[in-house]
Amino acid sequence: MVSAKVWWAASFASLGAFMFGFDTGSIGSIVVMNQFVDSGFKLSPTLQGVVVSTILITSTISGLFAGSLSDKISRVFTMAIGSAIFCAGSAIECVSPNLACLIVGRAVAGVGEGFFLPIIAVYCVEISPAVSRGRVTCIIQIAVTLGIAAGFFCCYGTVHISDSFAWRTPFLLQSSLALIYGLGCPFILPFSPRWLYMKGKKAKAEEVMRSLHRQNGSNESINVEEFEVDVDETEQKSDIRDIFKKDVRKRTLLACFLMAMQQLSGIDGILYYAPVLFAQAGLSASTSKFLASGVSGLLNVAVTIICTPFMDRMGRRRSTIIGGITMGCIICIIGSIYASGASTGGGQWVIIVCLYLFLIAFGSTWALTTRVYASEIQPLRNRAAASSIANSCNQGVNTLVALTFPVFLASTTTGPYWLFMGCLFTTAAVAWFYMPETKGRSFASIEQVFTTQKAPGVMGLRPIFKLGSKNV
Questions:
Q1: What is the pLDDT of residue 23?
Q2: 3-state helix, strand, coil in the chain (%, to 5)
Q3: Per-residue pLDDT, 472
Q4: Mean pLDDT of the chain
Q5: Could you say which DSSP state residue 24 is in?
Q6: Where does the chain cross the membrane (predicted)?
Q7: What value, to the nearest 5°, has the Cα angle with vertex 165 and ends 160 and 166?
Q8: DSSP letter string over 88-110?
Q9: DSSP code of 455?
Q10: Tens digits of per-residue pLDDT, 263-285?
């Protein structure tokens, strides 16, 4: 059973994920607000992509260094510093008088986001016992989806404000949240016990672990070994180049692939540009577009919350395969409707329903598994660095999607859907053959799966054919 202290620490740490989701949910609505256009921000599809994706570009770059920084100064202080930078960037966005200033603000916010976002998953993985690691880490995705819904409905509410405060208010709220998060991290969150072990502070690590996992009102002693905090002396120092050494590079590449494919599923194209997609499907009124976008955000939240308790039952591999196939079929239906010219009348409602079904499929599978899997398969000495690189791959592809999606969609209504469908089916196939299962496994057990010398196959992984095999 997970203690209340673990849930509280993971929840507060995930406030950073909420901020990420809030920006994702609000920016697509902001750039199409009449008040935003009236403030001198009339943007072409290309400039819309630039405004949306700027935060992702700088986040991708800073994310490359987040792991090394967190290994030096701790997970907690890295999240705090990132939040302070994000706060400054959001404040610049809020007061922006012109497009150049707005882009600068988003670039600054992206630097901060790149520091705290990948480290949240590492922190939650490291404070959780193996048996409930998936459920605890799912708080991150719940926070993201809550943030997305909050961003949608914040804009739905502020769109009724007649002046520029309609679009400045969401940025003001972002900045305020980041200030609370940055100030709270050092005072509320305990240091990661595994980071303390890595730094040679074993007594302090055991003290923190016992404090985290002691149940309320219980004096029962805690078996520290149960939570896998012991590390070799060789793991106390690492270099970012270590993530591509022979014994770990297959894990790094697998994590990077899965995190990149999560974005090429098309999820952020839908989340960023939901108002545009619903308008394309036939919803013409501005408020209807915002409302439809908000409903998709709430649906995302509900699915994530409902499915989280089953995270450690279904497993990471099975979830990735089933999710990829299901989402691929849904995207195929949407693309086929547009390709056949049947997107009017009843066809538009089929498209809208399919978009909602896609969100359900993503929220119940890939949204819950990818980030935790990319982090938990890494050895302690490389976990932060490898997770940061994988997150940068995620953000880099996210940038590409955000930058090109409006232009791509304007030139062809079917092209994006065929691309996403191909990526989804490809990922499902890779997971079927080369993705070992990690649910309920200790870090030591996961290490054995990846370090076996008897595994041929791609990246040193033995091909897997049986979905429920005990060897995966």
A1: 93
A2: 80, 0, 20
A3: 45
A4: 82
A5: H
A6: 47-66, 73-92, 104-125, 137-159, 171-192, 253-278, 290-308, 320-341, 347-368, 389-411, 417-435
A7: 35
A8: HHHHHHHT--SHHHHHHHHHHHH
A9: -
A10: 888 887 776 666 666 666 666 55
Q: What are 397-433's pLDDT values in tens digits?
A: 878 877 777 777 777 778 888 989 999 999 999 998 8
d(Cα 7, Cα 72) in Å, to the nearest integer?
Answer: 25
Rounded average pLDDT over 109-114: 94
CATH superfamily of 4-460: MFS general substrate transporter like domains (1.20.1250.20)
Which residue in this structure is represented by tokens 């232009």?
A: 407
Domain map (residue ranges) of the chain: 4-460
Structure tokens at 332: 């195929």
Residue showing tokens 């540009």: 273
Q: Is the pLDDT of residue 468 over 70?
A: no
Concatenating the DSSP letter of every residue in 160-214 gives TSSSTHHHHHHHHHHHHHHHHHHHHHHHHSPPPHHHHHHTT-HHHHHHHHHHHHP
- On the question of pLDDT at 18 being above 90, the answer is yes
- Write the CA distances from 351 to 112, 279, 333, 416, integer angstroms: 36, 11, 8, 14
Hey, what are 192's tokens? Answer: 């990661």
Two structure tokens written together for 152: 């949608």
> For the chain, how big is the Rg over CA atoms in Å?
22
Residue 102 tokens read as: 């707005």
Between CA 357 and CA 351 the distance in angstroms is 10
pLDDT above 70 coverage of the chain, percent: 83
Residue with tokens 């590449």: 253
Q: What's the first-to-final CA gap in the chain, in angstroms? A: 25
Cβ 465 vs Cβ 429: under 8 Å = no
Which helix (H) or strand (E) is 334 found in, with range?
helix 316-340
Categorise residue 230: left if φ over 0, alpha if ψ from -120 to 50, beta otherwise: beta
CA distances from 327 to 28, 365, 390, 424 (A): 22, 10, 22, 7
Buried b (16+ CB within 10 A) or exposed e, 448-469: ebbeeeebeeeebbbebeeeee
Both tokens assigned to 150: 């909050």
